Amino acid sequence: MSVVESKRKENGGSGPVTPDIGGTSLLKRESKVAKSLWLRQQDTITRLEELQRQHEEEIRAKEGRQNSYDDLRTPLRSVDGSRRPSVVNDINDYRGRPLHDQLHGAYRATLLSHHTKNLNLRGFLNLFFILLFVINFRMVTDNLMEYGLMIRLPSSFRDILSNWPMLLCFLLMHFCILGAFVIERFVAAWVPHLLDWSECVLIGLNFFLVFIVPYLTVCNSSPSPAASALLLAFSIVWLFKLFSFHHVCLDARRALRDGDNFRELCSNSEEAEHVRRYPYSITLRHLYTFIWMPTMCFQFYYPRVPRIRWLSVIRHVFESAACLALMKIVVDQHIVPVARNSFTITEMQSIPLSTLLVHFLDKITRLSIPNLYVWLLMFVGLFHHWCNILAEVTRFGDRQFYLDWWNASSFGEYWRKWNLPIHHFLNRHINKPLRRARFPRIVATSVVFLISALLHEYMITVPLQLGWTGWVFLGFMAQAPLTYITNLSFFQRNPTVGNCFFWFIFCFSGQPLGILIYWYLWGVKHGTVQQLDPSKIQIM
Questions:
Q1: Helix %, strand %, coil % for the chain, to 5?
Q2: Which residue, 134, 141, 309, 315, is most buried by CB atoms nearer than 10 A?
């Protein structure tokens, strides 16, 4: 039974039904209480915005109920009967009077409240840049006053010519590119089986030469560590490129043998057309262009820009040269002196362990800032300028060589965004084939980590000619549990905490500690650092 019918029965079944004023007011009070409870649960900004909206609604309601403002305005005639100026002039006359200036007529939040919208902190950003400049300028002046000018340039033409075996080896490596072309164009495409033993032997021999010839050149000559690292980097990059080239060609032969639908298999029609014409679609020019493209994943078709912008090439060349020069200055002036003085304590064998730990902790903190600058300069010079130079010269269209790794909240996110060419190669040619072969995900990820760790150990210990040390390998493999830890729900809910943890571990503790370890090993080998005897170090 409805409320209206019940009221009508109470009135004897006839007569008008009077509205329940008490029930309506009760609903209004309940609505007001509910809105008040809701406002208490909101943040400061939302609460003040809602109060301001209610205040404006009340003002509009009052203005709607008022028909005139004659009782609120001053009469147009003064006490003596003379007529006052117009209303506009009255308003102008009110300026400067306290009653006219209502400064606090709205609900507003403090500007630096947590939920403030559209907050402009550009002034603080400018202040931080000024502080950064002043602090670094002070660090530079202190370094010059303490060590003097330490920048070392090649002292003679003989120092430059000492690296000539590196250049000769680099030129000889081009025969491996020619060998890869000959294998795919004239051998692999005509053998009866998909992967013939003769083809495997030739490809394996070619890979072996790309890898072992630069290694033997570095070990049997006395080049600078920088030149050695550069040659080994080229050998690893070209090895990956040739592996991708043979892997893609093998997949093309499998598609031709199985009669696959090329348009479904390939991502675009141009790639499908090249696969259909295999092996005639392979040319030496195409392979050489791929070798110099800033990618390690071979494709028959790439997006290409219509022309080379030579002004952009020149700009990137000058900026990359500036990055190299700044790296040289920071290394010679700020990293080498600190690392050298870290092992000059004459009583190092007899001082207490606590004092020794404090000493090295001080050196790690002093190395952290210049090491961070060198690392960032290396990133800008390599992944931004050098890759853009190669992309511009080869007219390579995909210029995404890195993502926003600096915002990474986990180590896994960092490695996925830091170096996209390597990441794409390992994912396309190692991880996904292993997953397709039904290996567990943990096995595929472990293999990728193992390859990366071995390559980092190789790229550091061989140029320094220290042999196998295992420190870089262990440090890299230690990132596997760190990747698991930073993928926990706590770091996912608090990405800022994860990002700070990543920066601290990676740049302010791990890398400076690695510099000290390898400076010590380098100094012990060359006799400039006294080897520590752990048995002689005092515990207390």
A1: 70, 0, 30
A2: 315
Per the model's pLDDT, the better-predicted residue between 12 and 248 turns out to be 248
Known catalytic residues are 456
pLDDT band for position 338 (cuts 50, 70, 90): confident
pTM of the full predicted structure?
0.76
Domain boundaries, the chain: 160-292, 309-529
CA 47 to chain centre: 37
- In 3D space, the residue among 302, 303, 295 whose CA is nearest the CA of residue 421 turns out to be 295
Are 466 and 514 in contact by the 8 Å Cβ rule? The answer is no
DSSP-assigned beta bridge partners for residue 352 = 538
Tokens of 468: 């196998």
In the 3-class helix/strand/coil scheme, how is 89-145 assigned residue by residue? HHHHHHCCCHHHCCCCCCCCCCCCCCCCCCCCCHHHHHHHHHHHHHHHHHHHHHHHH
pLDDT tens figures, 482-540: 888 888 888 888 888 989 998 888 888 888 888 888 888 888 887 777 777 666 666 65
